[in-house]
Amino acid sequence: MNLTMYNMQENNRRSQRVASQIKTEISWLIEHKLRDPKKGFITVTRVRISPDLKIASIYYSVLGSDKERDASKEAFARAKSFLKHELGNRIHLRVVPDLRFFYDDSLDYYDKISTLLNKINKDESD
User: Fold this and answer.
1) Are 45 and 104 in contact (CB under 8 A)?
2) Among 18, 58, 75, 81, which is least packed, fewest CB within 10 Å?
3) CB atoms within 10 A of CB 30
4) Is the Cβ–Cβ distance between 55 and 102 less than 8 Å?
5) Which domain holds residue 73?
6) Sign of the C-alpha dihedral, residues 17, 61, 113, 122?
7) What letter would DSSP give residue 53?
8) In this predicted model, what pLDDT tens digit does every residue of 57-103 receive, in sequence order?
9) For the CA atoms of the chain, what is the radius of gyration?
10) CA–CA separation, 26 vs 87, rounded Å?
11) CA distances for 34 relative to 26, 59, 111, angstroms
12) Domain count, the chain
């Protein structure tokens, strides 16, 4: 294995470790430190981090309606700098990544597909 390939694998493992740690810490911060009453019931579903570790894309789901989802999005916008500061206190990186929050609609998609499959099975059994 050449040196370039080894460095790419090592960087990938490091990125995965950092993303996992950020997911754990952000989840804890949202649950225990974020005091915004409009945050709703949020679950961090995954974290992706750029190869240079400067941008963390945080994907989340919200239990509730579209209105509650919008309120959670606004809560993240208000709390972004607070969460970045707190994250910096909890993880040890030279630079704390910029946090970007995205609603993860994969659970909605799964629910829609599941409903359609149940409907098809019900129609076939009748």
Assistant:
1) yes
2) 81
3) 21
4) no
5) 3-125
6) positive
7) S
8) 999 999 888 899 999 999 999 999 999 999 999 998 899 999 999 99
9) 19
10) 7
11) 10, 17, 28
12) 1
How many angstroms separate the CA atoms of 96 and 108, rounded?
31
Residue type, 80: K
Q: Enter the tokens of residue 98.
A: 């910029």
Alpha-carbon distance of 124 to 126, in angstroms, equals: 6
Confirm whether pTM is higher than 0.70: yes
Q: How many CA atoms lie within 13 A of 119 on its CB side?
A: 6
| N-to-C CA span, the chain | 60
Nearest one of 78, 21, 75, 84 to 49, comparing CA atoms = 21
Compute the average pLDDT of residues 32-52.
91
Give the residue carrying structure tokens 């946090």: 99
Structure tokens at 104: 């993860």
The CA distance from 92 to 95, in Å, is 9
- CA–CA gap between residue 78 and residue 36 (Å, rounded): 9
DSSP 8-state secondary structure symbol assigned to residue 51: T
Instruction: Check: CB of residue 60 under 8 Å from CB of residue 101.
Output: yes
Distance (Å, whole) CA 73 – CA 67? 10
